[in-house]
Amino acid sequence: MKSFERLVLSHLKDITDPFLDPLQFAYRANRITYARILCVDFSSAFNTIIPALLQEKLSQLSVPDSTCRWITDFLSDRKQRVKLGKHVSDSQSISTGSPQSCVLSPLLFSLYTNSCTSSHQSVKLLKFADDTTLIGLISDGDESAYRWEADHLVTWCHRNNLELNALKTVEMVVDFRKNSAPPAPITFCGSTIDPAESFRFLGTIISQDLKWELNISSLIKKAQQRMCFLRQLKKFNLPRTIMVHFYSAIESILTSSITIWYSAATAKDKGRLQRVIRSAEKVIGCNLPSLQDLYTSRTLRRAGKIVADPSHPGRKLFETLPSGRRLRSIRTKTSRHKNSFFPSATSLINKAWT
Q1: Which of 204, 177, 265 lies closest to 39 in space, CA to CA?
Q2: Per-residue pLDDT, 20
Q3: Which of 154, 201, 211, 292 qualifies as a FRET site for 40, CA 20 to 30 Å off?
Q4: How far is CA 59 from CA 63, 64, 267, in A?
């Protein structure tokens, strides 16, 4: 069945890709004074999809009627049981939501929420499956657009049977003004959301000062936990090739979202990360790629994918000079911007070309 779902998944992507929200995450204005970021939590997001409403939305995205009917039939009248030890409950018929571990669930939810977008230029609604983030860029203290979009999101979710969890919803204010007063808290679903100093977004910890010490400490802790298993492999005299293969799991932790935070990390934090790699080298008994090399290769690869994707909203930031030999450098006024992904990637690409 999952093989057939993958065929339907490929078919849906081919049809709906041109209609999907482009997610303009790189917006930048001149008079922005601070930003408010609202990380929204859905309660059992995939379980709230209404098949009939989903079919209507798919039809609006030019999905063939036969495919719409198949998806509706696939989601309707499903039998479900609960097993606890040797005990099994009676089967119940369910016609809401998408099955757990279903291949189609992430895309179906993305299509289900595709019409939920922001209407103000200063507010962006970023969606990654059921992870939704509202970013308001506040100019001259005017928060009306941001607050309107937050209310609109609540209304849209209510109309589409999506339940928001205000207790797990987090807001963070990024404000670098010297004499700034804390903005008035936002009310979301009847609850007041107190601003947090940091939050975890797609596995990466983002702090309101845009520094990465908390995120790097979290990565090092996870990597060191797996280093214990690597040392156990050494004790059992396993071949070096197997230990190197196991180390790839540790490397994937150390390089999680590395293209975002590495350039802005402090020398101290980079040294902490590199010490984990040196410890692994001593255990395995061979040289391993340095963190700088891993960052460079991944940044160049990600930048290459962006350049090759005409629909990517950040593609226009990689502008080639008339000579065709270099990219136009991105002008920056702060070190925070200079050490962010696009200026850093542009610099690395120019070095690679020369």
Answers
A1: 204
A2: 60
A3: 211
A4: 5, 7, 53
